[in-house]
Amino acid sequence: MLVTTGMTAQTTHRLSPTARSLEKRGYVNVQKLDPSIQVSLMYARPDNFTGTVLYDDLREAYLHPHAAHALVKAQKRLQQLRPDLCLKVYDAARPMAIQQKMWNKVKGTPKYFYVSNPAHGGGLHNYGLAVDLTLCTLKGDTLDMGTKIDYMGAAAHIDKESQLVASRHISKQAQRHRELLRKVMRYAGFKPLRTEWWHFNYCSRAQAKKSYRVIR
């Protein structure tokens, strides 16, 4: 069950309608927990796989408190291992209305495989229990991960990375970066998604449906 986070009236006034709605429901702005986590929401820009802006007003990354605190744990672990690096979030909690827009873009195309159907309950982003992220320098420059975030193809899969390196689809350095990202995220309790090196789930979909609420 979500617990509403405290905030001043001044802070509330500055928030976008979507951000206010998320905070009212108890979701947490991850940068309020740890300002060292960097955020650049890819669906607030047109340079994503849909080619359009899906987040009209949201610029902050929100997560369910359980996932948000776990992400802070991952960030702290990364800083222990590599003080020169930090996590950079590209997507977090995603309202179901946005999921529907995304689904409308891919239904009937080969890309549908990569997007959760809202008619079936959506995915863990729609519970604030999944995060898309990468590694970056303290200045915000992203590391080589083999593909860009949102790349829909085999080169983004994590189960055959040795073959991808051998075939020169990704570099050995990119593989090491992916492994480091998985290491710190697993340390914090997240589980990677086989087909997207950048996507991590805090729990299973069955657990989410049983114990958490979808974001409408």
UniProtKB/TrEMBL annotation:
The record marks 94 as: Transition state stabilizer. The keyword Cell wall biogenesis/degradation applies. Its cofactor is Zn(2+). Its EC number is 3.4.13.22. Keywords: Cell wall biogenesis/degradation, Dipeptidase, Hydrolase, Metal-binding, Metalloprotease, Protease, Zinc. CDD domains: D-Ala-D-Ala_dipeptidase_Aad. It comes from the Bacteria. It catalyses: D-alanyl-D-alanine + H2O = 2 D-alanine. The active site is at residue 196. GO terms for molecular function: D-Ala-D-Ala dipeptidase activity; metallopeptidase activity; zinc ion binding. Zn(2+) binds at residues 125, 132, 199. Binds 1 zinc ion per subunit. GO terms for biological process: cell wall organization; proteolysis. Catalyzes hydrolysis of the D-alanyl-D-alanine dipeptide. Belongs to the peptidase M15D family. HAMAP family: A_A_dipeptidase (MF_01924). This is D-alanyl-D-alanine dipeptidase. It comes from Hoylesella timonensis.
